[in-house]
Specification:
The complex is a heterotrimer of chains A (about 375), B (about 290) and C (about 325). Chain A has about 375 residues and is of the alpha+beta class. Chain A is built from 10 helices and 20 strands. In chain A, helix 5 packs across helix 6. Chain A is elongated and about 75 Å long. Chain B has a single domain, classed as MetI-like fold (Orthogonal Bundle). The longest helix of chain B has about 45 residues. The two termini of chain B are about 45 Å apart. Chain C has about 325 residues and is mostly helical. Chain C folds into 2 domains: about 50 residues; about 240 residues, MetI-like fold (Orthogonal Bundle), CATH 1.10.3720. In chain C, strand 1 and strand 2 form a beta hairpin. A two-stranded antiparallel sheet of chain C has the order 1-2. Chain C is globular and about 65 Å long. Classes of the chains: A alpha+beta (about 375), B mainly alpha (about 290), C mainly alpha (about 325). Chains in contact: A-B, A-C, B-C. At the B-C interface, helix 1, helix 3, helix 4, helix 5 and helix 6 of B face helix 1, helix 3, helix 4, helix 5 and helix 10 of C.
Chain lengths: ~375, ~290, ~325
């Protein structure tokens, strides 16, 4: 069935759109209304902690699971009821799922063999796919003879050989060690640009998401809390959860005292500060929650025009950053991070915490 | 002081000698009767307690005996057919039972395993009376049904264990890459569980090839199997021909068992190396 | 309109699901048919038969009676029943005494020796028990190997006539049933956490006390599995009594066989089988109770199950 494209879809070249997915297992509702439009060639990451439902979304797109409600539309075609083999979508499984009884060549060429391609063509395509992931000449090896990184590459080669419209990747780097993971991030990005295939990528690692994606969908409890570019998600989190999960921002609460053209000023137990309103309409007296990144926190000794009183709790160096843990008067813990030299403060000192209003943003507090 | 150390040492060594000795003696004793049968099958003499030189005489006689040959044929035919039928039923069931959300599937699983839980004599007896009730003529058919009943659980258990250990994502990956559910089953699931099926088949063939009690009850006039022949001969007179026969049966059984073991290992090997590797990597990461 | 589309969607999914289920139902059809036709059917018929009356000459008459069960307790048969129970009891005891230490010591050897011993016990286990019993006949018969050996070293002057006696039947029983006990004990002793034993020793228990308070209770399920696997079968293995005992030893199995094949009193044979089945069930019930107690004592089984459940939820199978 051909769904008529909306104007936006034509303009933005939407390749995949998810419309109002819902899914429950028994009594637990795992997905409650998932909507997402993915543009052709985009790298979209679903970011969230384990158990938030991101793998379920992927499995529904792949057709390995039926949604209770909602539609999957691929290139204008409703594929909601199509079995997995009828969707031009391939998956790189978290466990790689390389067929243990087939060698690398047979694994990679499987999709083409299913289509009934000629042997010579399959051989050629397999060689090309393997060279794409830098595993030339690995055809005869068995999966159990490969290292984790190699198996990962084979899984990718197998999934891209049939030139899917969309490639789904389920935490493909989860089983690799840190160094290999960094290297693979760069390679995956390169691969995506070379192939021009749309990637939907799942991870719980915010650094990975920020590094690789065109857009990030931050997921919690079966819903997307925010969908946006890495910069948007990082600089202007919409909810306190997004702020905390992406980049571990500081959260400060207070009551609005005045509102002016995109900014809101709030009073807390420790003092008065101003932040961007993040598109939320506040009135004086409303509860306000703001998010401030660690690196944007400044610690000063004397109170200037705005700032919050705090006590230094702890200081330590982590990965070249000086990390200072402070406690505000109302008991909220604040962490400030900055490069380089040591500060003169010692635990127990009473100081003031401040930040420029542009660096702080009001967020929604969802249950 | 040094005395004390010495005495405790002696005590420990004594403690470990007894178990070793015990294990050794009992293990040897287990093999003595078997060895006796095998050794005396090569005895020239007709009386089994007199040793009068090495000879293949009894094997020759065995092969010349058309009755024995027929019994061998019956045993093989029976074993092969019942383990083939059981393999089909049990494999389909192992795949289908967890998926088909039919009522009483746990119960059926339990009931189908009854033939190896209840005493053999009871099984033999119920088959005898039941087949008479159904008016089935006693012979190969009744033998095959009876043997299939106890072959099914052996194969079912092996295949089920294998399927549980099998990552579902193999099958899903095949579907994802464009295989229909039937194609994915034949390309992926079946080859991966095949070692377990074959292992179970060898095991159940060995069981069928060995069975006396149940066969005695359901056999027909002209379908005596080798074990039944051995049993009737042991009750009456024994010539070293029986030794030769026993030795041959022993070879077949041990062969089947070894094959069953080999195939169950093949099945596990790939998985295991993969799992071990993952484990090692996890350790390295930590 | 939207709700109409959604409804249609839902029914489509259900259709797909139903198709999948129908296909699976086809796969399990053979086992359902076979199990009901050739396992449940015969067993149900056995129970019905045990309440029927034996016909004068041949076959059975459909007249309800309890006589078959009463018959078991009649003087003639109850004596045999008692004898068979006694023999089963002695055999099982002997199997425990011989097999428990074997399984226990086996679990304490190095893993490579455990594998070797296991294989060595496995092989005779798969060898036809008739063949193995035949070996005993050669050894024990008058002027057999044992007699010759004993006379050669001058311990005895004449053949002992060991074959066809009560002790020989027990030897045969023990020999045939021993592997079952060894496996059962071994598999539960092998899982045993030996640090518990060391801990109890450390707390001042003597080796014997440590065994009684720690090792034995923890290997009890294995021992009981062994008993389930040996006790009832030892009442049914009629061929052992046949070929090693001559006509001197009669087991329940012998009566069943005789009643079936010679006397043709099928209802009585059925009643005897029912009694054997009941005894088996009782033993299995006791075993289950003990095994459950052990599980409650905590071996992480529950935890694993929860984990699996979680996995299942995540994959949404």
């Amino acid at each position: 069935m051909l769904i008529e494209k909306t104007r936006d879809e034509v303009l933005e070249d939407i390749i995949l759109s998810l419309r109002n997915f819902k899914k429950s297992f028994g009594d637990t509702q795992v997905l409650q209304g998932i909507n997402l439009d993915v543009r052709r060639g985009e790298f979209v990451t679903l970011l969230g902690p384990s158990g938030c439902g991101k793998t379920t979304v992927l499995r529904i797109i792949a057709g390995l699971l039926d949604a209770d409600e909602g539609q999957v539309i691929l290139e204008g075609n409703d594929v909601t009821e199509a079995p997995p083999e009828k969707r031009n979508v391939n998956t790189v499984f978290q466990s790689y799922a390389l067929f243990p009884h087939m060698n690398v060549g047979a694994n990679v060429g499987y999709a083409l063999r299913i289509r009934g391609e000629k042997k010579a063509k399959i051989k050629e395509e397999v060689a090309r796919a393997l060279s794409l992931v830098q595993l030339e000449g690995y055809e005869r090896r068995m999966p159990h003879e490969l290292s984790g990184g190699e198996r990962q590459r084979v899984a990718i080669a197998r999934a891209v050989i049939a030139k899917p419209k969309v490639l789904l990747l389920d935490e493909p780097l989860g089983a690799l060690d840190l160094q290999l993971r960094r290297q693979m991030q760069i390679e995956l990005k390169r691969l995506q640009r070379t192939l021009g295939i749309t990637f939907i990528y799942i991870t719980h690692d915010q650094e990975e998401a920020l590094n690789m994606s065109n857009r990030i969908a931050v997921m919690r409890g079966g819903v997307f809390e925010q969908v946006g570019t890495p910069a948007e998600v990082y600089d202007t989190p919409r909810t306190s959860y997004v702020a905390r999960f992406v980049g571990e921002a500081n959260i400060i609460c207070g009551k609005a005292v005045s509102v002016s053209d995109g900014f809101v000023t709030l009073r807390t137990d420790g003092g008065v500060v101003t932040a961007r309103d993040g598109g939320i309409k506040f009135r004086a007296g409303d509860d306000v929650t703001i998010s401030v990144r660690r690196e944007n926190i400044q610690i000063i000794d004397e109170l200037q025009d705005a700032g919050l009183r705090a006590t230094v709790k702890e200081k330590n160096f982590v990965g070249g950053l000086l990390r200072t843990t402070l406690e505000l008067d109302d008991g909220v813990e604040i962490i400030a991070a900055r490069c380089g030299i040591d500060s003169p403060h010692v635990p127990g000192d009473v100081v003031y915490v401040m930040f420029t209003p542009e660096h702080a943003v009001a967020v929604r507090e969802l249950p | 002081m040094s005395n004390k150390v010495k005495s405790s040492k002696r005590k420990r060594s004594r403690r470990s000698t007894f178990p070793t000795l015990y294990l050794a003696i009992l293990t040897v004793l287990t093999y003595v009767p078997i060895a006796v049968v095998v050794v005396y099958s090569f005895n020239e003499s007709k009386i089994s307690s007199v040793w009068s030189g090495l000879s293949l005489r009894w094997y020759k006689e065995l092969f010349r005996d058309p009755d024995m040959f027929r019994a061998l044929l019956m045993s093989v035919l029976l074993g092969v057919s019942s383990c083939l039928i059981a393999a089909v039923i049990a494999t389909l069931a192992a795949i289908g039972l967890p998926r088909a959300k039919l009522p009483g599937r746990k119960l059926v699983e339990y009931l189908s395993s009854l033939p190896i839980i209840i005493p053999e004599i009871v099984l033999g007896m119920v088959f005898l009376v039941y087949f008479s009730l159904l008016n089935l003529p006693f012979g190969m058919t009744t033998l095959i049904i009876a043997h299939t009943s106890f072959c099914i659980p052996y194969i079912y258990m092996q295949v089920k264990a294998r399927l549980i250990g099998l990552d579902e994502s193999y099958y899903e990956a095949a579907r994802d890459l464009g295989a229909s559910s039937i194609r994915a089953f034949f390309d992926i699931t079946l080859p991966l569980i095949m070692p377990a099926v074959i292992s179970g088949m060898f095991l159940s063939f060995a069981m069928s090839f060995d069975d006396v009690i149940i066969s005695v009850f359901v056999t027909g006039v002209s379908t005596d199997t080798l074990p039944i022949k051995v049993y009737t001969q042991l009750k009456t007179s024994t010539t070293p021909k029986i030794n030769a026969l026993c030795t041959l049966m022993l070879v077949v059984t041990v062969f089947c068992y070894v094959m069953s073991y080999v195939f169950s290992r093949i099945g596990r090997r790939n998985m295991k190396t993969q799992k071990e590797r993952e484990h090692k990597e996890a350790i390295r990461k930590a | 309109m939207t709700s109409g589309v959604l409804k249609k969607k839902k029914s489509g999914c259900i259709k797909r699901e139903n198709k999948r289920r129908a296909a699976s139902a086809l796969l399990v059809l053979p086992i359902y048919l076979f199990t009901f036709a050739f396992v449940v059917g015969p067993l149900v018929y056995m129970i019905i038969l045990s309440f029927m009356t034996r016909a004068e000459v041949w076959g059975v008459e459909r007249i309800f009676t309890l006589d078959n069960y009463k018959n078991i307790f009649s003087e003639v048969y109850f004596g045999t029943f008692r004898q068979s129970l006694k023999l089963a009891f002695i055999s099982t005891l002997a199997v425990i005494l011989l097999g428990y230490p074997y399984g226990y010591y086996m679990a304490r050897t190095s893993p490579s020796w455990q594998r070797r011993l296991m294989t060595m016990q496995m092989i005779p286990f798969w060898v036809n028990s008739l063949i193995r019993l035949y070996g005993w006949i050669i050894i024990l018969r008058a002027n057999g190997l044992l007699d010759k050996l004993l006379m050669a070293i001058g311990l005895t002057d004449e053949p002992l006539k060991l074959l066809y006696s009560y002790p020989t039947v027990i030897v045969g029983m023990v020999y045939v049933l021993l592997p079952f006990m060894i496996y059962s004990v071994y598999s539960s002793a092998e899982k045993l956490d030996w640090s518990l034993v060391e801990a109890s020793r450390d707390l001042g228990a003597s080796p014997i006390k440590a065994f009684i308070t720690v090792t034995f209770p923890l290997t009890l399920p294995g021992l009981l599995t062994g008993v389930v696997l040996t006790f009832i079968p030892s009442m049914g293995l009629f061929f052992i009594a046949d070929i090693l005992g001559g006509n001197k030893v009669v087991l329940v199995g012998n009566i069943i066989q005789e009643q079936l094949m010679k006397v043709h009193n099928w209802p009585f044979a059925a009643a005897l089988s029912v009694v054997l089945m009941i005894l088996t069930s009782v033993l299995i019930y006791i075993y289950r109770r003990v095994a459950r107690v052990e599980k409650l004592m905590g071996d992480g089984a529950k935890e694993n199950k929860d984990k699996d459940k979680e996995k299942e939820m995540g994959r949404g199978v």
